[in-house]
Amino acid sequence: MIWEVFRQEQAGEYHTHCGNVHAPDREMAKQFAAVQHGRRKPTNSLWVVPRDEVGEITGDDVAFGGTTDKSYRWATTYRTTGADASEVVESESEQADAEQGRGDD
Predict the structure, then answer these.
(1) Residue 20's CB: how many other CB atoms inside 10 A?
(2) 95: domain range?
(3) What is the pLDDT of residues 47-59, one digit of tens each?
(4) pLDDT for residue 58
(5) Cα 48 to Cα 23: distance, rounded to the nearest angstrom
(6) How many domains does the chain contain in total?
(7) Distance in angstroms between the alpha carbons of the first and the last residue of the chain
(8) Which stretches does the entry tag as region Disordered (predicted)?
(9) Helix, strand, coil proportions of the chain in percent (round to 5)?
(10) CB within 10 Å: which end of the chain, N or C, has fewer?
């Protein structure tokens, strides 16, 4: 049986998928996961889940992020004819960083 392993580096952070292990039961899977995935990097906890129990939702199943245009919420949407206020310049930089981060996921 294949078990998927999710690792949390520090308390309060998200668990991220780090691989899988092959084991006949849950206890062996937890032991294998600890040896294979818990000792290489700092680890706070591991989740070990049967592969058959992991559900997937794709973009074909549902429209992620909605379809409503809410660009008015972003400072980068608005342009002025005069000099930009310092808050707008800082916000544009933050929004650009956020958009670039979302593109990496």
Answers:
(1) 18
(2) 56-105
(3) 999 999 999 888 7
(4) 83
(5) 11
(6) 2
(7) 29
(8) 81-105
(9) 40, 20, 45
(10) C
